User: Fold these one by one.
Assistant:
Number 1:
Amino acid sequence: MFAGTDVAGALQAAGVTHVVWLPDSDLGTWDAALSAAKDLTLVRVCREGEAFAVAAGLWIAGQHPVIILQCTGLFEAGDSLRNALYDLRLPLFTIVGVRSAKALRAGTTSDSCPVFVEPIMKAWNIPYILLDDSRPVSDLADEYVRARAENRPGAVLIAE
Amino acid sequence: MMTHRQALEVLAQRRGDKAVIATMTSAGIWPDLADTPLDFPFLPSSMGQAPAFGLGIALAQKRGVIVINGDGCTLMNLGCLVTIAAHPAELFLVIMDNGLYEVTGGQATAAVARTDFAAIAAGCGIPRTYSFADLDDWTAHAEAALHGPGPVVVVLKVEARYGQKTPKPRRPISEQLQRLRKGLASMD
């Protein structure tokens, strides 16, 4: 898992203004660093559908938010995601923690979460990359920068 | 009791320079009352997400934002009241409480005649909450409710109507968004 200070630094360097999030136990290790980041505002929500709507409002008012959530929250947030990305056509960017992804590869889990994440990203037609610990944190920021330059939605899936 | 339209007429007269996000039944009525770039009928929307959408706008700039939400919409995302309380901004959430899912024809919500949205909002930490069931009372206090620091929740108990249909947007959403962005940017 990337260090929170590295993620916060990369997001700030990429021009992200707000992180709208509902973390899980892995992503939650970034909390202190994201909270302390001088140029990032952390917006804590109660449910993941809210995250897409808050990010939509921020974007419309000229900010550059990123949404961070666990894949379970991605599943919950479908209608809000649909509205923001396809009705409103907003180029929102999401970082998704994929619960049990490493365990699935190792054949040591019956958790259904990781099975459905990539098919769902494809169904929503959201361009994404999958990262794990072997990749540098700059890959995450680079994907955000690419999506922003192309004015399109994007996502990074992080194997947990 | 007041009608939905009467309640919104008072709101339109007292909204000042705030942006207004209107959902569901209100999105069908509001363009008759106000149609500036700062008036955004949220059609199509994701039911329950307008308060969060308005919060994002309110956090991003200085202009106040009024979100007109239905009671059914609010029930779909009650957690938004906690989120709004956690992030102080000039957000004014107006909940139109008629006890019905009106745009689907008039089916009762689970909350009908039982749930006190203002009390829930206060319990979530919203510092100013109001509830009005009478047009004269709402008219007398709307100015105070809609000004001063946010966040604020205003519950307006309005007459239920049956047999209504989902309102249709008067402009493409892309045009609505473009107008709203320009309107918001005009104050920066």
Number 2:
Amino acid sequence: MKKLLTLALVAAMLTATGITAFAVDYPGGTQNTEITTSVEPTFTVTVPADTTVPFNALSTEFGSVKLESARLAPNKAVQVTVTSDYNLNNSVDNTAVIPYSLKAGNDTVDADFAAMFLNAGEKVDLTIDITQAAWDAAAAGDYSDTVTFNIAYVDAEQ
Amino acid sequence: MKKIAVMLLAVLMFCVPCMTAFAAPTEQKGATISTTVPAKCDITFISVGGRIEEGGTDMDGTEEFDRRSVHTFHIIPDEGKEIDKVLFGGEDVTSQVKDGYFTTPALTTDMTLEVIYKDAGTPVEPVSEPTSKPDTSKPAATSTVSSAPVQPSANTPASTTPSTPSTDTAKTGDTTAAIVFVIAAVTTVSAAFIIVLAKRRKETE
């Protein structure tokens, strides 16, 4: 019984590791052996940190979305999109909001916005814009909103 | 039975490292944007040459008001002054001042209310009482009442013309020269009388 178990264990170990050596005898000629390996893509993206907008500020630096380091496959890219309702919501009264916009340079960040990064070091600077009219219309209180950055590994042609 | 369980566990342990970890296709990171809208707004009052009131209360220096509240201020120039210009937040709102009252828009941020005064353009009333410091160097002719109006110095900032209404206008009631003239005449007459008396005494002796 012991021997049987030992045999079963050895068989299981060989199967589990998946290493199988096939020795084939050929009578003659050549045989190609393909060596394959795989390098997994790795990348690091930094996104803006939590930011406090000063009262009555029309434009505030939000920070950058940056591809810090990257080892991407050819024709692949890192895509960053942004999800937000673009309203700062009052902590007490959820009907009281301060509308804002995110700008990437001169471009407005909206649902269609997608930043594509191919090389490490590439970045997009973001600013938070609030109009004076929006400030003037705002009731007193604390406001906040969460901006979600969606980071994806995609085909570069996208 | 125990051994079988150990064996199965060992088999499982070998199988586990062979599993491939598939990363999620999309990763999400969040950042919070926050701000605070203050409940109060400050108004700084600048009024050299007059005063500003609200509901009978003097507004002086910097006062605090509720955000989005509306206020009506009464601008009261000092005597001899009148409103030249009213600036609210740097904007000229002189045309919005009615009968000395200015109503603010809803306050949304800290502001400055600055009133600039000029000398009033009304004729000067005759002054019956002499000034406290008579100017004896003036000729007697200046003691007559002047009816010429005081000319306003238009567009002069309040900061360069502080309010001194009494000294600017009360130059018309100077009678000192006339008094000096009367005293001199009385003295002369008295001296002449004494001389005459002295001569008569000599004659009688």
